[in-house]
Every structure is written in C-alpha cells, then in structure tokens.
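Entries read sequence, tokenised fold; example below:

***
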Amino acid sequence: MNSGANQAILEERAVWLDDLQTIGPALIIAPHPDDESLGCGGTIAQLRALNYAVHVIFVSDGTMSHPNSASYPAERLRNLREAEAREALRILAINDADCTFLRYKDRQVPMRDQPDFLEATTAVATLIDQVKPSTIFVPWRRDPHPDHRASWQIMQEALRQTTNRPRVLEYLIWLWELGNQRDMPDPDEMNVWEVAIDTVIDQRNRAIAAHCSQVTRLIDDDPTAFYLSPELLTHFEKPRELFLEANSQN
C-alpha cells in the first residue's frame, strides 16, 4: 500500500475539529504503552490544558517488544514500560491515578470468542461507568495490528454493557505501514477529523520520547527487538492528529 498517498487521501477528506469542548472529558484506550502518545498525545495535552479529565487504559503489557532480552525478562520489561507510560502521561499532565493497566499479554489481547474477552470488556465497561467520558479514543477498527483490532472490539462490547453513550473517535497507528487497501476507511463509512496540535507538538514529542525502550537502544541484547522505526514516526511529524468517526447515517 502506498502509505503516503493514502495518508494524503484521508488528509484531503479531513475537517478541522476546532472546538475541543465538543470532545470534553475523555477515556483513551491504548493497546500498548506508547499508542496513547502516538495516536492522540497532542489532543490529550490540549484537553488537559482545558482542565478536562482524561483517563488512559493500557490494555497489554507491551512485553513482546523485546521477547528475547536476558537483561529485561518479561516482568522487568513490563515494569519498565509501565514506568515509561506514567512518565509520558505526566508530560501530558495526567496523574498516575488516572491510568489503568489491564496487563494482557502483548499480542494476545483477547478478541471476540476468545478466553478473557468477557473479562476484558467488563473491566472496560466498569471504567466507562466510573469515568463517564464524553469521548472515547480507541485504535481504528481495522488497524493491522491484532492487539489494536482486539482493543476496538473490547471497547465496542463494553459499550453494550453500559448505559453511557460517549462519542467514539478512532486513531491511526499501523494503517500506514502495515495496512492494505481493505483496511482503509470507506468514504461513506467514516468521517475524518483533524485536530491542530502545533501549540503542543513539543510536549507531545516529549511524551513519545518518554517511551525510551521503544525509540532508543536502551535494551540492546535482543536482536529480534521491536523499535518504532523512523519511517513510522514520519507519519506523526505533522502538527495535526487525524481521527475517524463512524458516519451516523450508517
């Protein structure tokens, strides 16, 4: 897939979302620590500047980024990634009390009809009832990464378990690098919103950089390790964030 061309197509369709008060208090669903900063970090920073409450759910433990590291076995790596996540959230003005770690195994976040799916949806539904967000941010439903698709499915089922009816905005992470044409949103399916983040882009970039294990060679003893590539990060250099919202007519 021509990632640059498809990104440009969505950007051409995008409508500026100028009034962040239409978003209000928010719940962020991040499949892994770093998705919150990559997908909507600038929007989070601006919501917090407006004094809106923001709560972040980290669904997986992120431990498959370095599965063969001897210096960072799974538990130590999980603790590191959670510490990095808390630091990123502090940069975005979110307190430690306003994040939840569900700790599902990385790359094994349960999908529908899999073990632990009901447990995960119940946990998210409980948080929706507690937080009462006006808007939920969640990965794009057809994101190529299985944990991202599973997180969207968990959110969708959780909404069936609660009477709260928040707005849902879907953010884009892996569509550009790993997606195919079938993963792209249909013009009749989704509205595309664009949020300007030029005033907070340095703050957002510091939040991304706080995930040191993902953007540096902090852990250097696993030749199979995953890092956020420069190619992927180029999609997050522009002073705006894109969000998809289901067309109410569908």
